[in-house]
Write the structure tokens for this entry.
Amino acid sequence: MSDGPSPDRRPVNVGSARLFVEALLLILLWVAGFVAGTPAVLLAIGWNAAIWVASIDGLAFAGVDPGQLVPLSTVFATAAAVAPYLLIELVAYVLGAMSAVFASRALSRYRAGDTRRRPVFRAVALLLVGAAALIVLAALVEDRLTPLLLAG
């Protein structure tokens, strides 16, 4: 009898919850980029980076008594284990933010019916599709690959 699901037989909702959170963050980032532009996007991505650092710190020092030294190799190994997920997520957020800024600028610069709007909105759509695909990939990597890297 076990105390819970084993790491290789986790419930499906773990990955879908991560996907939901990452998709929600992408939507919020898009809205911030559309409404407030590049400064809001930089602030949001910077905040997310701070959360990443706290997560790496929490993983590296999990189970360590306060005041006990942790080998630097443990910190580097932890950072290397989460790096694939973080890089994919970062690219997804940058693509999403770019699409928001492009859409906002196109609406403010070009009047309705202007033929220059169409290629901009085509690019916005492609960037959003790419960002959404990368968010799905990031959730899969975080759910499946990262635990394997942390365990081994």
Observations:
- The mean pLDDT is 85.
- Residues 72-109 form the longest helix (38 residues).
